[in-house]
Amino acid sequence: MNFIQNLGTREKILVMSAVVVVLLTLLFTLVIDPMLAYSAQLDRQIRKAQQDLEELRLKQQEYAQQKQVLDRINTQLTRQQSFALFSRLEELARNTNTRDKILYMKPIVSSPSDAYEEESVEIKMENVTLEQLVAYLYQIEQSPQYLRIKRLYLKPLLNNRQMLSVIFRVSTFTPKSRSS
Question: What's the domain range around 27?
């Protein structure tokens, strides 16, 4: 401290100013700058967490919608009485006057599922008009049983472009019994 006492007023002011500048520089370098960097990092993390939360909310809504659809299908499947898919498809074909257009109906082996048993029938129709086909497919889709149309292939006939050759698959599902 004798060093400071031996200095003149101007020199004391200059030394004190230098000490203050060094202290402020150290304060900024060691305290304020790391706090600002940490704050910016936290802001980025908050924005990312908000985006993740929004994505999670969207996924939750999508899940709820899918669960509603699945619950509705499960309810429909458990309420439906057992029926023969072949007989039901033939009955619908008679109702729409397309029975004579069916070349074949053959069962399809479906991949097993843990929750459902799937029964499928492939149908080939020839010389059918678009109106007849639509009426038949509509009757299938509107059936009280849970019937779904899969893999629909349409091809106009070469000799008459108004007539179609059609191959499609109709599937129904039944819940597997829980006891097995």
Answer: 2-77
